[in-house]
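User: Here's a chain of 315 residues. Predict its fold as tokens.
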Amino acid sequence: MVLPGFIDLQVNGFGGVDFSSPALTAEDFAFACRGLQQKGTAAFLATLITSPREVYQRNLALMAKAIAGFQLEKIVLGFHLEGPFISSAAGAVGAHNPAWVQRPDPALLDCLQEWADGRIRLITIAADVEGAEELCCHAVRSGIVVSLGHHLADAEQITRLADAGASALTHFGNGIPNLIHRHQNPLWPSLAEDRLMAMLITDGHHLPPAFIRTVVRAKGVERSIIVSDASPLAGMPPGRYSALGNEVILEESGLLHNPAKGCMVGSSATIRQCVNYLANLGDFTEPPLRAMALDNPLRLIGLTAAFYPAETTVK
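Assistant: Prediction complete.
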């Protein structure tokens, strides 16, 4: 298909480079960005998971300077903070370290944005923690898009956060316990809330085809977004690794997981692989794939497809 390129709103790293590592260098960051571009990621949001305060201060400033210094503005559209304002409850916290989870704090968010040189475009927060509404309102007033995830929120809490300006769902269908109540869980009210766009990891491991089809039918193509949730091990061979604070196994199949926690630790796929997986299901033609992997992610963060004037062939 001929497209300006695919846009990925959730990339934790690539080729062994971890954006949340305290050892991250500007050169490694630029290497990962160029590598992603070569694999079909036209542009993305560099994502930091829940981390200690000093890592945020160091890495946000480092990446912001690298974007300018290595002329990466067209590749790195900004930052996505997946935390630290998430739930620390087992299952909801996922692969994140619960010791680094923070209570919603608008003042801390301002510090994070200052360290990032104003480049934070998207933040994932839990809807069921005290202070989430205040933080959401503050973020939206500051020009930051709020997405809900890593929580056990009920219908009332999800509605309140949508009223406060939240507009998306982070890796919908993931970031919750493996076993949940059949009716009282975050899935149904999130699916029913039309103000929230659903980001879906379509790598062939995070979500089964029936779930993907159901979400897109409920949300509509116009409120669905493909993301990779690419881990630092995307682009790496199978094996045992340390990644994002976890001891993980990257299987031959591409499944990346922490067997001790019984959870996945991001994806080993790029956005192009995620789009191809969805295309191979046979349910989606080129127009909806373009919408979910280009137009919708840009629209969510306040950009348009006109941001990319030159067309390139993406296979």
